[in-house]
Amino acid sequence: MGRKAKLLSKLQNPDNLPTKEQSSFRSVEREFKKTYVNENDKIPQINYEILQSYSEATMHPGIILLKNFLSIEQQKELTKLCMNDFNKLPNLTNLDKYYETHPEGLFPTYSQYYYSNRKSILKLKKPHEKLKDIEIQKAFRQIRWVNLGLSYDWSNKAYYDKNSTDLPEIPSHLIDPPVPEYIQKLVEQALKAVESQTDYLAKNYKSEAGIINFYGLKDTLMAHQDRSEQDSLSPLVSFSIGHSCILLVGTEDRKDTPIPIILESGDCFIMYGPARRCFHGVPRILENTLPLEFYPSIDRLETYIQSLDPVNDMFRLPKLKEDLELLRMKEGWNQTRKDWDIFGEYLLESRLNINIRQVNPAVQKKTEI
Ligand SMILES: O=C(O)CCC(=O)C(=O)O
C-alpha cells in the first residue's frame, strides 16, 4: 500500500490512527503535509466525522474545544478588526521589520487597490539581499502575524523587557498596548466555560498578549511549545475563523504521537494547566471548508473564479462553482454583502487565528491551575 493510501485508511478507521509506537510528532506532521499539500496529488477525501470523533475521544487533559463558540456576526466583526483595526501600530506585524511602517496600517491602501484599482508599492526600509519593494495587494497577503498586547521579540523568542535597551524600532510609548477590549471580552466568556468544567478560577486571568495568525491555504505552522510565558498554567485561548485546519496536539515530549483535531470557523480551542506546554502545530489548512456565510458578492466570486488556474486550483474549482450556484439561488445575497466583499474575498484563501495568553503568573488562584 502506498503512503497516501495508508494515511487515508488511517483516517477512515480510528483504530488505525497513528499510535505512540508508530509516530513522533514530526512523522505525523509530515504525513498530513505530504499527502494533502502537493498540488499535483489527488487530494483524498477526509472523513471528517471519524477524525472529529477521534479527536474528541482522545482529548488530552487540559484541552477544551468549544465548538461554534463565535457567532457568524462575531466572526465577521473579528475578521474586519484583524484585517484593519488591529493590523497597525501599536501592534507590530511581520512586515514592520523590513518594510516601511504605515501608521494607519496597510488596509486603507489595500482597500483603494481593491475597490478602485489604485496601485501602490510598499517600500523596503533599506535594501535587502532577498526582499524587494512589493505591490500593495501582494504585501497585504504577506502579513503573516500581528502581535497584540505585550510586544514580543520573535528573534529571541521572548517578550520585550520595557527597561531593556534593545527595544523594537517603534516609539517606546507604543510598546505594550493592552489586548483589544473586544477580544478580552470574548476570552472572558470562553474562560467562564473553562471555569464551569474545571477548578480554574477565571477572574484571576489577564489577557496580556496575543498573536493573530494569517494563514494562506498552503501555510503551515511547525510543531512548537509555547515557552515564552512565565505563567505556564494559565489558559491559552484561541479562536479560529475562515477555512478549517488540522491542529496536531502532542505532549511535552516531541517523540509522542500527537492527536489531530479539526478546528472549524467559530471554534474556540483552549490549552491550560497540564496541556499548556504541549507541542502543537498546524500542518494543514483544509481547502473547500469556508462556510458560505463568509463568501463575497456574486460578481466578485465570479471574477475570482475566473482568475484561478485550472490546473493548480483544480481541487478548489468544482466546490467554488457549486457554491456560486447556491448563492445565485439565495434571494438578495448581494444586498447582504454590503462592505463585506474585501473581507470575504480575502477569506476565500485564508484562515485567521487569534490566540491570547497570560504572560505573568496570576497573583491568586483557587488551585494550582
Ligand atoms: O493557528 C492555530 O490554531 C495555532 C496557533 C499557534 O499555535 C500559535 O500561534 O502559537
Automatic annotation (TrEMBL):
<keyword id="KW-0223">Dioxygenase</keyword>
<feature type="region of interest" description="Disordered">
    <location>
        <begin position="1"/>
        <end position="24"/>
    </location>
</feature>
<keyword id="KW-0560">Oxidoreductase</keyword>
<dbReference type="GO" id="GO:0005634">
    <property type="term" value="C:nucleus"/>
</dbReference>
<keyword id="KW-0479">Metal-binding</keyword>
<dbReference type="GO" id="GO:0005737">
    <property type="term" value="C:cytoplasm"/>
</dbReference>
<dbReference type="Pfam" id="PF13532">
    <property type="entry name" value="2OG-FeII_Oxy_2"/>
</dbReference>
<dbReference type="InterPro" id="IPR027450">
    <property type="entry name" value="AlkB-like"/>
</dbReference>
<dbReference type="InterPro" id="IPR037151">
    <property type="entry name" value="AlkB-like_sf"/>
</dbReference>
<feature type="binding site">
    <location>
        <position position="280"/>
    </location>
    <ligand>
        <name>Fe cation</name>
    </ligand>
</feature>
<dbReference type="GO" id="GO:0051213">
    <property type="term" value="F:dioxygenase activity"/>
</dbReference>
<keyword id="KW-0408">Iron</keyword>
<dbReference type="InterPro" id="IPR004574">
    <property type="entry name" value="Alkb"/>
</dbReference>
<feature type="binding site">
    <location>
        <position position="226"/>
    </location>
    <ligand>
        <name>Fe cation</name>
    </ligand>
</feature>
<feature type="domain" description="Alpha-ketoglutarate-dependent dioxygenase AlkB-like">
    <location>
        <begin position="132"/>
        <end position="357"/>
    </location>
</feature>
<dbReference type="GO" id="GO:0046872">
    <property type="term" value="F:metal ion binding"/>
</dbReference>
<feature type="compositionally biased region" description="Polar residues">
    <location>
        <begin position="10"/>
        <end position="24"/>
    </location>
</feature>
<protein>
    <recommendedName>
        <fullName>Alpha-ketoglutarate-dependent dioxygenase AlkB-like domain-containing protein</fullName>
    </recommendedName>
</protein>
<feature type="binding site">
    <location>
        <position position="224"/>
    </location>
    <ligand>
        <name>Fe cation</name>
    </ligand>
</feature>
